Amino acid sequence: MGFPGTLRVVATYTLENDNRLVLKLQAETDAPTFLNLTNHTYWNLAGESSGAVYDQLLSLNPDRYTPVDEALVPTGEILTVSETPLDFRQPRAIGERIRDGHPQMVIAHGYDHNWVLNRGRASSLVLAATVVDPKSGRALKVYSLSLMPTKVVGSKYWAKVIPVKRGGSRGPCGSKLQSQNRH
Question: Which end of the chain is more exposed for a tag (fewer CB within 10 A), N or C?
């Protein structure tokens, strides 16, 4: 795969007694290499075939994000979320501002951005994001252990079409939050 050495990756999924699903990603290599492990799991906390995720409440720890260009590549800038539809420091419905005319929302057709996690000097787990479905009461919390600044990536909630189990596709019926190391 183009790595300078042998790379061994292990993904461990654990369903704990208190109904927590834990994903632990580990990697070992015998030579220096760049690596950024994440996952691309889509969630709809209301359940399969329950429709769009627009009413689910999202809160994000970060107060900064990385704007993207027309190809959805981060520009290198780090800007504040204040007074933008990318501000989820307080819980808000995912669909509340999804069609806002803000240039970043138009470019990405919704949320397809990196948020820069506020972690200070913490070297333990930091809560990065929470999604709550008000109808079912289900919640998803994303924590990060990375010692480096971390990005939380929100999927294209506006235009994403996702295949569903019973055939066909519906969109936007899922959301994803993925932690990544910032290089």
Answer: N
State phi, psi for 114 to the nearest 5 degrees. Answer: -105, 130
Count Cα neighbours of 105 within 13 Å in the Cβ-side half-sphere: 17
22 and 67 housed in the same domain = no
User: Which runs of consecutive H residues, i.e. helices, occur in 47-179?
Assistant: 103-108
Residue 50 and residue 14 share a domain: no
What does the pLDDT profile of the chain (183 residues) look like in tens digits?
A: 567 888 899 999 999 998 888 888 889 999 988 887 777 777 788 887 787 888 999 998 888 998 999 998 889 999 999 999 999 999 999 889 988 899 998 998 888 888 888 876 666 778 888 999 999 999 988 887 664 444 454 444 444 444 455 554 455 677 777 776 654
Please check whether residue 74 is in contact with residue 46, taking contact to mean a CB–CB distance below 8 angstroms: no
Instruction: Enumerate long-range contacts of 118-123, CB under 8 Å, 24 or more apart.
Output: 118/61, 118/62, 118/63, 119/144, 119/146, 119/149, 119/150, 123/147
Full residue range of the structural domain in which residue 118 is found: 42-181
